[in-house]
Task: structure prediction
Amino acid sequence: MGRKTAAFALSLFVAPVISSTGNTSDFKTHFSIAGERYYEDLVIQPLRDGRVISTFTFTTLLEGVSPRDPWDLETPALHLFPLTLGQILREYSITELHLSLNAGKWNYDNWGYPEDPSVSTGAELWAWMADGGPMSIDERWTGLRNALAGLFCASLGSLDSRRTSSPYSAFPLSSVPSPKIGIPYALRYATLPSEHVCTENLTPFLKLLPCKSRTGLARLLNPQHVFDADWHGLGVHVRSTESGVELRLSVQAVLDPVRQSGGKRRDWSFQILFDRTIDAACPVSSWSTARVVVSNDDGYTLSPELPMGDESVAMYDLASQVPLDISMSWPHEHTFPFPLTPPSPLAPLSIKRALHGSSQTHGVLSVALSNNEHGDITIGYLETLPALVTLWMHTIKVEVRGTRRDDLISDISYHPPLLQPNGHHGPSMLQVKLTVPAKSTLRLSIDVTKAFLKYTEHPPDAMRGWDLPPAVLFPVLVDGPVKHVVNDSFVDGIDSRDGYQTIPHRMYTPTLLVDLPTPDFSMPYNVIILSCTLMTLIFGSIFNLLTRKWVIVKVEE
Amino acid sequence: MDHPAPTTANHGLKEPQKLCFETARTRRLVLGSYWTIIILAFPFWWNLTSIERIALPSYRVRAQLDRKPVFPVNVQLDASSFQGSAPTFGRALHEILAQTTQASPTWRDLDIQVGVSEHAGDQSEGPNVYSVVLGNHTAVRHPRQLVVSQEDALSALRLGSILSRLLAPEITSMQAQRIAQYTKRYRLAFTLLNENAASPHLVNSWDIQAAFAGKFSRFIYHMFPIISRLNLLHNFTIESQVQYHAPLAFEPLQFVVANNTLHGLTPEDLTVFINSAEWTLSSSVSNDPVLHFVLFVPSPALQPLHILDAHGLPTSQNAFLLPQWGGIFILNRHARAETMTHLTAADLVPVFSAFANQLSALLGVPPLPDGVKSEESSLLSDWQLDALLRYRTSENILGSQQTLYSIIKLVDQIENMPVDQTVRGDVHDALTALGEAHRSAVGSPATALQWSSEALSLASHAFFNPGMLALLYFPAEHKYAVYTPLFASVSVPLIVALGREVYGWRRERRVVRSG
Result:
C-alpha cells in the first residue's frame, strides 16, 4: 500500500490544497465576472528516471448554467467561456464531452497514473447527450464530430459509424444537474489511434483560453518544446456539475531534461523545459497556481524557495510571484545516476497487449496483466475493435502461471460487429470483468480473424497496416455487476474492500498495428489487361473455328 | 486457298465442302450473327456509357431573363389638405416621380400613381398605398403616411424630390458595395476585444445580456427596433463574446499634436485592421453568414487611438465600417475612470447606436431624406422598410435570373457535364418561384421577397450541385486506353473475316455472271 500512496500522492493532495486556497484572502486579484470563473493550475512532477511530467489544467466554470435541453434555443452571452466551443456544445446539446489528442504511449510502470486519465494514443472522443429534440442522437454526434474536427484541425470527422460504440460502463456520465435526472442520456464513444497531435491542434486549443498563450501559465506552452516531449497530449473535458458547466482544458507532457542536457543532469526549470518563463499572470483568472510534487529523497534545491504547501507539494501563486521561473536542481549530483535496475512499477497493474500470428488471415490477441500489489485486483476490460478483426468468443482463454483459470473472468458481454444501413460494419465490443490475483500475471488470449477488405476501403498508405484502438481497463464495483461503476471524478480514492480492490481511473493499453491482406494497387489495370488478352484469345480461336474454311491439301510426294 | 477439284478426291477422306457446317451459307450465317449481335449491342453500350444530361428548360430561362418585376405604388394626396389644387398638383408630382424612376437604374420597375383621396389621412388601404397630408413639419408617420409642412408643400418639385427619395432612394455604387448579400439568416457576432488584458484599461465584461433582454430602454431604442423590424426580411441569431488578448497585426501611426503623442489609423490601416489570424470573432457552428460588430479597446500605450482622414489628420469619428463584413468601434477610455472594468448598458449606448447605424448600412436600409423626421416609435419607418423590401426583391430576382442563365450557358458549353433530375427540379422550382415573385410583387412586397429569396436559393442550389462536377475529370480517353487490348484484338479478325467473305461473294457473283 505504501507504494500506491506514493503513486496517488498527487491526486490525494490536490483536493485539500485547492480548497484551502479558495479560502485564503491574500490574493491580489479578485477577479470575477458574474457567473463565470476561470482558474489555471500547473502540476510538475519529477520522475525517478529524470523525466518531468507537467500537467496544465485550465478550468472555466459557467455557473448556474445547465447543458442545453435539446428543445431549448436561447443564446447566452459568454465572457470567459470560449464562444466557439460553447456554441458547438449548445448547438448539439452536449451534456458531457471528452476529447483527447495524444501522441506517444503512456508508461504507467514508470510514470504512474496521469493527472488526466485520458491518455489513449491518438484521438479519443466521447460525449453524453440528453435524448429528445428535433435532432437524433446520431445526427448530433455526426455534427459534433465535424464541428470539433473543424475547431481543432483534427481528422475527427473520420470517427464515423465504423468506429462509434456506446460502452456505458467504462465511460459513465460523471454527474448530472439534479433537475435533469429523469431524462434518458446516450453515450457515443470513438477512437482514432492513428491521429497524430501537432502544432496545428495546439494553436486552436490555445485560442480557447481567455489569455491565449500571452500571459499566465499558458505562456509556457511553447509548441517547439511541448511537441518535443516523449509524451504529449491535449484534453478537452466538459462536464455539467451541480454548480454549472465546467470546461477543463488540459495539456500534459512528459519532458526529458536529461536528454536535453546530453545525459548529464536532471536539473530543470521553466527556461530549460519550455524555453520560456511566466512574465505576467492572466488578469482574468480567479487563481493560478504552479505546484511541484517533490519526492522524499533529499538533495534537491527548489528555487524560488518553498513558499507554501507541505513536504510533498510546493505551491506557487502566480498572482504574487510573477515573473516566475521555478527551477529544481540537484547540486550535489555530478551526473544523473540513471536507475539501472528496473525500478518497481508505480501503477498497481502492468499491461502488455499484442497481436500474434504470422498469417494474414488469422491471429491471436493476447493481453498480459501483471498485478504488482499484494491483493487481488478486479477490473473491467473493454475492447472496442473495428470490424477489421473478428473476435472468436469460444477461444477466449484466461491463464495464470500456465494453468487455465476460467473462474477469474466473469460478466462477459460481447457485441458482434453489426451491419449498418450505410453498408459498413460497426465495431465489435467485448467487455469482461477480470480478477488479477496478487503478485501474478493474468494472460487473456482470444483468436481473431482479419478481414479481407475491398480495394477501395484501403487507406492511402495501405502497407503501413491498420491501427487498432487501445483496450480500456476501468474500475468496477467489486461485488456488483459491471454496470455500477464508481464516479469518474478527477479526485477519488481507491475502492477497496476485503483484500479485493479495483483501479482508481481508467487505464489504456498500447495500440496495435494489424497487418491485413493488402492488394497490389496497380492490380485493377493488370487484371483488365490480362482478362482482355484471355478473352481475345478465346474469342479468336472460337471465331476462327467457326468461320474457317477447311480444305484438303494434297502433298506432292 | 484454291478449291481442289472434287474429282481428285480419292484419298478416302470426306470432302470438307460437303460437310453441313462447312458450307458458305453456314459460315456467312455465323459471321452475320456476330455482326448482328455487335450492331444490336451498340445502342445499349452507347446508352450505358453516355453521361446523363437531362434537358433544362432553357427557353423558359431565356424568356425569364427579360422579365422585370413591377411594383405599383399609389400615392394619395389628402384632398382636404391640398384643397382644390390637388388634381393639378398630383399630375405635376406624377410627372416628376416618373422622370426620377426612369432615370435611376435600380428603380425603373417602380410604377408610381398619384391620386387624390378624401380619406387619405385615415388608415391606408393596402400595402402599396401611401398618403400625403399637410402638417406642421415634414415627417413620416405610421402607417405609410408623409406629413408635409406648408413650405415643403408649396412646390411640386420640392415635394416630388422628397417623395422620390422616400420611395426610390438613390443607392450609390459605394453604398451598394457595402450591402451584404441577401440571405434569409444572418448571425450577428458582437465581440468586445481588449488589445492587451495586462493593462489597467482592461474591460472584462459588458452588459450585453441585459441590453438584449430589454432592461435598458435607451439601448433598445437603437439596436432592437432595427432587428425586430428587419425580421420581415431576415432571421437573426445573436452571439457575443469577450476576448482579452487581441493584438493588432500592424503598428498604428504615431504623431505629435500640441505636445501630446497620439496614435492614428490611416485609411489603409483600416482595411487591414482585422487580425483574422489571431482573433476568433465568431463561432463556426452554422453556415449562416456573419455580420461582425467589434468593440475594440486599445492598450494604454496606444490610447487615444484616432481614425485619420486621407490627409493624415485625426477625425472625430471612432467607428468605421468594413463593407459586407461588419463594423468596428474604437473605445478610448481617456475620458472615463481608468480602472473601470465593466461596461454598463448606459456606457454602451454610443457604441450600440454606432452599431445600429452600421447594421442599417450593411443591410441596405435607406436613410431618411434630409429634413424628414420620423414620428414613428421605431427607428425604421414603413417607407424605408418598403423601399428596402423592393430593393432586395429586385436584387434577388436579378440574381436568380443571372444564376439560372449561367447554368444554361455552362451546360451548353461543357459537353460532358452531367445534368441530373435534381438540377432540373431545382431549375424548375426556381422558375416557378420567380413567377410567383413577379405575380406577388403587385400585391405585397413582403411576399414577393419571400418568393424571390426562395428562387435565389434554389438557383444557387442547382448551380452548386456536386453531381455536375462528377465526370468532368474522367475523360473518355482513359476508358479507351484501358479497353484497347480487348476491342482492337477482337475487331481485327471480325473485320478481316467480313472483308474476305465479301470478297469471296463478289468473286462468286462474277463467276456466275460470266459463266
In short: Chain B touches chain A through 49 residues (CB under 8 Å). The radius of gyration of chain B is 38 Å. The first helix of chain B runs from residue 24 to 49. Residues 391-464 of chain B form one domain.
